[in-house]
Amino acid sequence: MIGIEVHQRLNTSKLFCNCKFNANVTEENNIQEDTAHFSRKLRAVAGELGQIDPSAAFEASKKLQFDYFSPEEHSCLIEEDDSPPNSINPEALQIALKICLALKANIVDEIFVMRKTVVDGSAVCGFQRTALIGFNGKINTSCGEVQVQSICLEEESSTILNSKETGKSSFKLDRLGVPLIEIATAPSINDGAHAKETAHEIGNLLRNIGGVQRGIGTIRQDLNISLENGNRVEIKGVQDLQLMPKIVDNELLRQSNLVLLAEKFKKSKVKFSQFPTIVNIIDCFNSHTNCTFAAVAKKTSNTALAIKLDSFSGTLGFELMPDYRFGSELSDQAKVNAQVNGIMHSDEDLSKYSISKQESDAIRSLLNCSAQDAWVACFAPEQTATKALIAVYQRAKNIGNGVEKETRRADGQINRFMRPLPGSSRMYPETDVQPISVSSQELKELEKQLPVSFDQQIKSLINSGVNPQTAEQIVKQGQSNKMLEISKESGASLSDVANLMTQHLTRISREKKINPESVSQSLIINCLKMYSSGKVTKTALPVLLESCIVSNSSDVELIANKFNLNSFSTEQIRSLIKKSKSATPIEIFQSIIREHRLNVDSNELTKLLNIKK
């Protein structure tokens, strides 16, 4: 079973205040010296049902300190949780309602804002505000309709900063509170390729509706994947759609291999009756050891702790998915729970750590390992290493469960553990925001504003003479309305407008290293007017545009005269034909075009020479 959640930022001010995200900031750690900052510690609280969510409890157990930086121009007291929120941003709400209408979803009569407990530090207040807008929608794909379970409007999280101190995480509040549309499908997607197509179609719909941010990081996908009789796993942060099929395939492989391991351990009847003794193995390494981890531990406050895992020999090295073994699964648990760099285990090639056979045998002897047993070690301060090994053991102990309910993060083509899967316990009502009624009249007015679908826009362009590939490119870039306007004002055909803007302007921008958006629409229209009125030829048109851009001039007639780009009249072309010394019409055509290609219209020359195409 595969489902997908698409999260798209809206291009409006924030959801509950008037601040706006600075989309031009590319360096996430760009903090001004005078930026206000403060620290918080967050704890999990009971949800509406009186229970603490396991995901929230897990994050709170890390006992991290969160440092927040609040840029004055892009955040305020609401993000800092020092002031109650305003009402929902009406512009963001209208965009959300349009999206629901485009998805043919049922829209709720009254919108209630809920609090979703989030104590990983990404929200200062310890929760994310979210509101259900619609449900039971659908999106068309080549494999049939995919049901859309819910469309929500919620707050974006804070920008994560790189914290150099252990036990701390840092965030910037410029992004916190930006409106985010969450579209969640039913788990009815067939495979990775279908997931990619579904995400692609949803992305097209969002861009077509408008009001959304564009660029890297403004849209992201989460995957929900489970095998039959297994548990749901959520994979967060899939941004590259090209990798999505492989991410899905690898997760299905990981889950099926975990099921195989579970069956193996159930048959072996291995008992996990009590936590194994944690043993300090530092004395297994002599003072001249080549193992860097051990050498550092001997000279610092670090130590080397290890536990024995009964009957796990060979299991830690068992590959769950490419370049990811069950030992990697244990290592991820240690990293997330104890913030260590990783673990070491007996199924690895220990020579890569410069551990000798003598040292390896000493560890096995100290831990009383048989040939069927494995060991896991962690080099860190004693308390940290102990915490890491407890997390390792808990995961190993649960091997018989098969697939754990987890939230994981995409890491290239694979994924890694983040925290336990959240449940309904983290939701409770937001008491600071009044509910909003949605009238049928308002929906009728919004429905009139819905744009023509991407497919219909592409068909219209193709019918106007634009080739299918260019038509699709124009529509996906949101340029179709702009090109229709340019065509109408300039008198040039839509295919000529598309050819100039998608091919020649793109080439000019690349070669001259300019932003194509910086070229004014009026300049493009005036160049096309010169062509549609017959003053320049089709061949000279892109040269005229480029010359205007390079000369930084909007006087197209002046530039045409300066660079000798004006079309020859019919009489001038006839004169060239008479003067030509070529023998045949084809040779005359070739000689004239070769010498005057920018000034002579090839179609007119063909007619004058009576050349049949």
Structural description of this entry:
This protein has 613 residues and is of the alpha+beta class. The chain folds into three domains: 2-18 and 36-232 and 424-429, no CATH class; 266-420, Gyrase A, domain 2; 454-567, no CATH class. It has 19 helices and 23 strands. The strands form five sheets. Strands 1, 4, 6, 7, 8, 11, 12, 13, 20, 21 and 22 form an eleven-stranded mixed sheet that branches. Strands 2-3-10-9 form a four-stranded mixed sheet, with no helix packed on it. The protein has a four-stranded antiparallel sheet with strand order 14-15-19-18, with helices on both faces. Helix 3 packs across helix 4 (244-268), helix 10 packs across helix 11 and helix 12 packs across helix 13. The longest helix has 25 residues, at 244-268. The two termini are 57 Å apart. The model has no long low-confidence stretch (mean pLDDT 91).
